[in-house]
Structures are given as structure tokens and as C-alpha cells.
Structure prediction request, 438 residues.
Amino acid sequence: MEKVVNLAKRRGFAFQSSEIYGGLASCWDYGPVGVELKRNVKNAWWHDMVLTRHDIVGIDCAILMHPRVWEASGHVAGFTDPLVDCKKCKERFRADKLTDVQCPQRPSKHPGECGGELTESRQFNLMFKTFMGPVEDTANVVFMRPETAQGIFVNFLNVLNSSRQKVPFGIAQIGKSFRNEITPGNFVFRTREFEQMEMEFFVRPGEDDRWYEYWKAERLTWYGKYGVRPENLRLREHAKDELAHYAKACVDVEYQFPFGWSELEGIANRTDFDLKQHAEFSGKDLSYFNEETRERFVPYVIEPAAGADRATLAFLVDAYDEDEAEGEPRIVLRFHPRIAPVKAAVFPLLRKDGQPEKALHIRDLLAKQFPVQYDQAGSIGRRYRRQDEIGTPFGVTVDHQTMQDDTVTLRHRDTMQQERIPIDRLVSELKLRIEGDQ
Ligand code: GAP
Prediction:
């Protein structure tokens, strides 16, 4: 994990937020390469969950919502963790996770075992609060959404009435969520500001178990489709006593991170809980009428809820590899071409004889299609290594022969094999290899 975090900083995947001021705990900024990586992850999700499906539509809701939303959803009353304070060091810990953390003063001990007395546990709400408008009083409190899902539920009727969808259908959203986590950590795995990729799939009650199984399989397959190794993925069904108050069943897609198997995504059968709660709290009828069967019901919801940052981290960790190139150790990120932040890098072999001009022309040609870099500094081997470290799948080299016959060498990141390609076929060849059959 340390190697990945170091590489991430060195090569511009992610930096600690406000680093020059000492950093802000658990907040991260994505750098020039990381922003492309994370965007590719989100685009792959959107492509497969919305663009190529006829039964799912997208939405993009405001982060701030009416405070009653969070009363109806159960977040005001129940989105809490039990906390204890250490009377000695004044630090605060999750009462149910004491053995997972170290005492800040005596790291070989857990809190409470270090001689410091712990207070009785109290419930602590994880929602961030702020004020709407110029007056900071309780009447103006609004919450930063802790999940994107509720924006979807409260728009159920709007989408139904405007999109000609019929149950079963889904509404998908990608967006920021905020949780005042007590023990954030492991790089971007658990942070206080993060991005979710959630989809609420509305089904007829009675058909929910079948759709639950369907989404379990779909979502597990999705990570493999973009290159995550199958041995690092598994499904873990929640025990009854682990289930959230709204869930009839829930399964986690877990990834084997260097710090252990951990949740990437939860797939839950949320029943009709949310729509019924919002119907009761808003006074609006959120039932669905099936014209064909003349049946009226409140749909059940199957929810695959993934984290964009966690998925990005899993792709990064899974791609990380070390091997040898030309007798020297190399770090290589073996990203799937669709996930790779930069798709190709263009190099002139020499900095003379018109090669840089030709290479820049090719760079501009490719840049119209996808992210591409140009590099003319240092030996060609070192330039390849730099691209391997950010996982660029293709290297395009302009050399002496290029100047004679308009062909370039195409170098493959994983095999390091090279082939010769005419420049006029370069764009189509690369697009085919990056996008495949989608
Ligand atoms: N709407 C259901 C829901 O929010 P969740 O399991 O709490 O369920 C879904 O969150 C996903 O969001 C998680 O599987 C995880 O990938 C991501 N996530 C949740 N909390 C996070 C945090 N503090 N930091 C990063 N990602 C987080």
C-alpha cells in the first residue's frame, strides 16, 4: 500500500488536500493523472449502467436537500456511530472498533488499555451540518448529503412522469457525498468527502429477489470487465444482524486490498422502505400504476451503491506490478486500456532531423481522440519507464524510418513488444485496441 501511495503522489495521481498547510486529514486531491483515471472509472460505470441500457436513466441532484428528506430516510435518527472519549488524551474513538485502532500516545496499546479511562459511549451523527442563508440558527440547518440515493427517491415521480420509463427501471447518479467518519484512512478508501456511483432499480414487489440476484452478478462482473483480477474479488452476503434498517438483504462486492478484504460496493434490497417513508413525510403518493395489469403498488428497490474513489483505488492497486525491463527493475501499472489515464505517449527518438515536429504533429492528431502525452527528454528507455509508471498502454516512437516512409513503432506496455504501423492507420488502430467492442 505504501508503494502505491508513494507512486500516486510522485506521478500525480493524488495529493493530500491543502498539503502546504500541513494537510487536511482524510481529504485528497486528484492530480493530473488521477483525475483522468477517476473520470475513466466513472465513465465506464455510466457507460454500462446508463448509456448502453434502455431501462436506466441518469440524474444529477443537488448536494443540499430539504432537511425533512433526512428525517424520512432515517439518517437524522439513525445514521450514527457509538463514540467514546479518552479522558487522558482527549481523543475520540468508535466504541465498536477499539481493537482496530492504536492509542495515539502508546501505539502498542488499544484505546482504553493505555491507562486512559474511556467515557460511556454516546451516539454521534455522521452527517455534516451547515446553514442555509445568512442566519446561523437551528431553523436554517441543512445537511451535506451522506448518500446520493435519497436524491433519486425524492425524484422518483419526476423521472417517471418525464422519461416514459416503466417498472422495472432504474435511476443512476454519480456525485459527492459527505460523512464525518470517525476513523477515515487507507488513502482514498475511507474519506469524509467522497464520490458515489449509485443506481436505484425499481421493481414490482415479488420480483425483488430475482433482480437482487441479477444485480449481484452484474456488478461483480463489471470490475472484472475492466481488468480487476478475479481472485481479488468476492461477494460477501451480510448476516441478518448486519443489515441496515431499510434492507431485506445486502451483499458487498469486496476487493482484496493490501490491508485486507474490504467493501467496494454494496448491493441492497431496500424494499419499499424509502418510497413509503417519503410518501408519508411529504404527503405525496409515490406508488406506481401498471397500465397493463391495472395494478397499483409501491415499487421495491434494488440498489447497487459503489464508491468512485474506492473503485479507483482498487483499479490502481490491482494494476500495480514490478518486473524487469532491459535488465532494470520497472514499476508498471497494467491498467485496462479503457481505465488507463493516458492512452498513448509520443516520442521522437532524436531531438533533430524533423523528428520532434513530426512527433508533435502525431501528438496533436491523437489528442483529438484521447489523453496523450509527448516526451522528448532523456533516453527512450527512460521515457518508456515514465509512461509504464502511469500505465500508458501504448508508446508511439518517431524515428529515422518515419521520416522516410511515414510509419512509427508502436510499443506495448505489458509485453514491451514493438510493431510498425503507418501513421494514417494509427488513430483507428489505437481506438480499436483501447475501446474494443465496448
Ligand atoms: N446508498 C447506500 C449507501 O450509501 P454505503 O455502503 O454506505 O451505502 C456505498 O455506501 C458505497 O460508497 C460504499 O460501498 C463505498 O464504496 C462508498 N463509501 C461509503 N462511505 C465512504 C467513505 N467514507 N469514503 C469513501 N467511500 C465511501
Remarks:
- The mean pLDDT is 95.
- The pocket of glycyl-adenosine-5'-phosphate is lined by residues 147, 149, 179, 181, 190-191, 194, 196, 198, 263-266, 303, 305-307, 309-310 (CB under 6 Å).
- Residues 32-51 form the longest helix (20 residues).
- The radius of gyration is 25 Å.
